[in-house]
From TrEMBL:
Coiled-coil stretches noted in the UniProt entry, renumbered to this chain: none
Record organism: candidate division WOR-3 bacterium
Gene3D superfamilies: 3.30.70.270
GO biological process: cell adhesion involved in single-species biofilm formation; negative regulation of bacterial-type flagellum-dependent cell motility
Residue ranges of domain GGDEF in the record: 201-334
Protein name as catalogued: Diguanylate cyclase
Annotated GO MF terms: diguanylate cyclase activity
Gene Ontology CC entries for this record: plasma membrane
């Protein structure tokens, strides 16, 4: 069973489930890009469903005969999610997965968030491609469309001028700091652990807690505290690679995913972050406030744990030991 799909000129490998947006200009461009993906899905024993304009449906039906499914009932934004769930349940025993190609429009924007919530369930073997004709969307609508799709492709899915981006979902963002939230982090950690196990690669996480942060809120108010949390989030992002994931785990806790990173390399990253925090002036207008210090716990795969919550727990244990030692410390789980 193949849990990955490759898109783009360099074969970007995405782990299922995948919810992607494809912006196309005309019929020829759409069919040129969809046909190879449908053919690949059929070869991999995945159920392929097309929902869109009748003229496109007829050409795909002519090419693939009964190997591609076209819904008998009329699919609308209101019944699409129910149809999708029912089809997936019916196809699980016969097929290895499912590929859905659906013609999007502004009327579909309200369902996208619910759809993404469904599509991020673990072990869901679905590739969902929403294709929108560029000329039919104005600039304001385009922003809404982009916000609701985690993967975006413009004009080409499989050719050299393919444009790819990872768009942060607002349902996965922390509203205060603008970085990812706990839900997104745990979802990504689960996927990265599967990939690390598959290829026998290392992976580490850093669990970060601000020392005595409650005193800042109590003495100077939550506005000062909120500003400090936002500044800290930006410091973390500036001191990480593009492949790393930083999230606000809750309150004054932050957590970082470091793919392809051994424990000692993760520890060096932790020291770099700690030094950046020590030298930053968080409270420019509050001269009586001491600068922030943090404690950091480090845990790694495969030596410490193999599961999402087990690995987080080990990093949390290391963080607790750092706090016990008085804070402003880095502790590696042993």
């Amino acid at each position: 069973m193949n849990r990955y799909i490759k898109l783009g000129y360099e074969g970007i490998e995405l782990e299922l489930p995948v919810h992607a947006l494809y912006l196309y200009r005309n019929e020829e461009q759409l069919l040129d890009n969809l046909i190879p993906l449908i053919r690949e899905g059929i070869e991999r024993s995945e159920k392929c469903i097309f929902i869109g304009k009748e003229c496109y449906a007829n050409k795909l039906r002519e090419k693939f005969k009964r190997k591609i499914t076209m819904p008998e009932e009329t699919i609308t934004p209101q019944n699409f999610l129910t149809y999708l769930k029912n089809e997936y349940e019916r196809s699980k025993k016969k097929y290895q997965g499912m590929r859905i190609f659906v013609e999007g429009g502004t009327e579909y924007l309200n369902y996208e968030e619910m759809l993404d919530d469904f599509n991020t369930q673990p072990d869901l073997k679905i590739f969902l491609l929403c294709h929108y004709e560029i000329e039919k969307i104005n600039s304001a609508e385009m922003l809404e469309v982009l916000k609701n799709h985690p993967y975006v492709f413009v004009e080409n899915l499989l050719k050299p001028n393919c444009f790819y981006s990872r768009v942060k979902h607002h349902i996965w963002l922390d509203p205060l700091t603008g970085i990812f939230n706990r839900r997104y982090f745990e979802n990504q950690l689960s996927k990265e652990l599967q990939r690390a196990s598959r290829y026998e690669h290392p992976l580490s996480i850093l669990f970060i807690d601000i020392d005595q942060f409650k005193k800042v809120n109590d003495e100077f108010g939550h506005q000062v505290g909120d500003r400090a949390l936002t500044d800290l989030a930006q410091i973390l992002e500036r001191n990480l690679r593009s492949v790393d994931v930083v999230a606000r785990y809750g309150g004054d806790e932050f957590i970082i995913l470091l793919p392809e990173t051994k424990k000692m390399d993760a520890k060096r990253t932790a020291y770099r972050i700690m030094n950046a925090i020590r030298t930053f002036d968080f409270f420019k207008k509050e001269l009586k406030v001491k600068e922030l210090n943090v404690s950091i716990g480090v845990a790694s795969f495969p030596e410490d744990a193999g599961g999402t919550y087990d690995l987080i727990k080990k990093a949390d244990v290391a963080l607790y030991k750092a706090k016990e030692q008085g804070g402003n410390e880095i502790v590696v789980f042993m």
